[in-house]
């Protein structure tokens, strides 16, 4: 499936030191992240619409609307919209560890490392 990045949107809803939350959406077929890991925070996802496919460690899981996935620190993960429809979800980082600043374009550095 071809990617349509024009439909990708991310909005910061909460930006606190102990927690950040974003609302995001993407087109069908879009790869959202390459494999990466966070050293200090849990990365959690609540799917609002559509479905997302997560690679978490060596496991693959597809989650539809109303589904939740939490990735603990130091576990490689990536996700994509492998479905036929656009997807919308909430992402929660606890603690924030610089994620909200990264999304808003003001981060100097934040808690992420490439994996793989």
Descriptive keywords:
10 strands, Jelly Rolls, 116 residues, mainly beta, three-stranded antiparallel sheet
Strand order of the largest sheet: 1-2-9-4-7
* Rg estimate, integer Å: 13 Å
Mean pLDDT score, rounded?
Answer: 86
Give the tally of β-strands.
Answer: 10
Strand content: over 45%
Give the CA-based shape: globular
Protein structure class: mainly beta
Largest sheet, described in full?
A: 5 strands, antiparallel
CATH superfamily: Jelly Rolls
The CATH architecture: Sandwich
Q: What is the helix content?
A: under 10%
Helix/strand order: EEEEEEEEEHE
| Parts with pLDDT < 50 across at least 5 consecutive residues | 1-5
DSSP summary: helix tally = 1
Q: What is the CA-CA span between the terminal residues?
A: 23 Å
Number of domains: 1
Please write the CATH class name: Mainly Beta
- At CATH level 3, the topology is Jelly Rolls
Task: Report what the structure shows.
The chain is mainly beta and 116 residues long. It has one domain (5-107): Sandwich (Jelly Rolls), CATH 2.60.120. Helices cover 5% and strands 47% of the residues. It is built from one helix and ten strands. The chain has one helix spanning 99-104, and strands spanning 9-15, 20-26, 36-37, 42-49, 51-56, 59-64, 68-71, 77-80, 87-94, 113-114. The chain has a five-stranded antiparallel sheet with strand order 1-2-9-4-7. The chain is globular and about 35 Å long. The model is unreliable at 1-5 (pLDDT under 50).
